[in-house]
Amino acid sequence: MGKEFTKEEVAVHNKEGDLWIIVDSRVYDLSEFSDLHPGGLAVLLSVAGKDATEEFYSLHRQSVIIRLGSKYEIGSIKGAEPKIPLQQPGDISEVPYAEPTAWQGWHSPYYNDSHFKFRSALRKFVFEEVYPTASANDESGTPASIELYKKMGGFGWLASRIGPGKHLKGFNLPGGVKPEEFDYFHEMIAHEELASMGINGYQDSLATGMIIGLPPVIHFGPKWMQEKVVGPVLRGEKRICLAISEATAGSDVANIKTTAIKSPCGKFYIVNGTKKWITNGTFCDFFSTAVRTGKGPGGISMLLIERGDGLETKKIKTSYSPSAGTSFITFDNVKVPVENLLHKENKGFQVIMYNFNHERWLIIAGCLRSTRLVVEECFKWANQREVFGKKLIEQPVIRNKLAHMIGEVEAVHNWLESITYQMNKMGYMEAAVKLAGPIALCKLRCTRVSHYVSDEACQIFGGRGITKTGMGTVVENFQRTYKFGAILGGSEEIMADLGVRQAMRTFPKGAKL
Ligand code: HEM
Q1: Which of 37, 51, 477 to mutate to test the pocket of ligand 1 (most atoms within 8 A of CB)?
Q2: H-helix or E-strand containing 23?
Q3: Which of 6, 84, 114, 389 is most buried by its number of CB atoms within 10 A?
Q4: Does domain 240-351 have CATH number 2.40.30.20?
Q5: How far is Cα 154 from Cα 186, in angstroms, rounded to an integer?
Q6: pTM recorded for the entire structure
Q7: Which region is the signal sequence (predicted)?
Q8: Whose alpha carbon is nearest atom 16 of ligand 1?
Q9: From ligand 1's centre to the CA of 401, what distance in Å?
């Protein structure tokens, strides 16, 4: 226990060079810090020697006190107890609607003990290993390091992000979950927890390329390729991405132009062309790449291409994130051994389609988690921000905004859980037939909700919602990044169309009003 002071003892330290304040019963000596304080000296002098709890929390996020507080804390007020809980690594939020209902005390048919342990372990890991450097790395455009990949690999997180299956064998999974008990709800949690940081671009620097680039190897690669690639990638030693989109072919996959022509000796494909918006491409070792080996949609093949001669990656500057390693790739007479074919020649479309539902589903999980985080931020802010003499939450217009935001997020989350339950129950073929439409529509709904929540959150946060640092940092990041989910993995328009076309397949012939 630190030193104890009375309020009167603190009160005499009230000038430049001898400046103490009280925040939530803790006493801070800011004499040395006042010159360095980003908010300046004058504001500190206005509360010098006093209790500045209200002033502090109206201007700073709690992370400031967690990060810097211990450096300046000298003791506490005699007989007083802190009233504001400091968030600890792994804490589950008690703010209403800040967590899925099962984590807020509701009964759930979907989760068991292992899911709770799994989430707690991941959350602790994020806040201890990833979060401390995430913001600065995102700002400077520095992708997650290979060391962090290895840590995530050793923790079993990378393996947890591509579903249940044989690839989990031999891995220790977070929270002591056994590979045989792992299901799609665990995987959903694995995506959610990374998104819980609220730094969306940096979150994507952490293996988003892998979660879409590795499944083609797992499901369609020959044995030698699986041995060479799957283990090292899941342990974080090597990195892989999916290279499909081109400048003239995004959602329109059938239109890709990058060619792969067999060499006269028949041992190689010679690849020429470009790829655009390839997540993690700047730092990957392997590229699961769509190439043209024939005409039309039936003339596409998938190749595993290793970084080497003729393959170059350049960073693309997106508003989304400089740290996700989003890249423009050029293939200039790249020699790829024919053994690197995934599945069969001209059957690449099947490989691409195989993982589409899974990709869209995990986009929903991540996107919805960051949307929920934004709702939590708004709820907290509304409870601490005072305008026109009262807290925002006391304004009916703000309560109305929160009500709609909460309702939208809960609705999509319930739909997502219901789909995830079906994924656990159905085999691949049944899921492909029955879930493609609902997943597409759920993704559409999710990103529309993100759009709505982002807009309302910016209104609630005002200028802070468009300021990178400080109270609105999460809201600012979100309004700059949520759009990514509305485009990646099939745009909203494609999702809407696909969802209804799929429904038409089972529409009863002759059904009339
Ligand atoms: C333990 C005590 C304090 C520490 C460690 C601290 C630290 C900081 C830091 C790191 C920032 C930059 C925040 C960011 O951009 O994220 C900041 C900003 C600021 N601080 Fe403090 N501060 C303390 C106490 C106070 C108090 C008591 C007041 C007011 C009475 C105050 C007023 C301000 C203001 C006005 C800003 C600028 C806010 C803005 O740009 O919106 N600070 N402080």
Answers
A1: 37
A2: strand 18-23
A3: 114
A4: no
A5: 17
A6: 0.93
A7: none
A8: 470
A9: 28
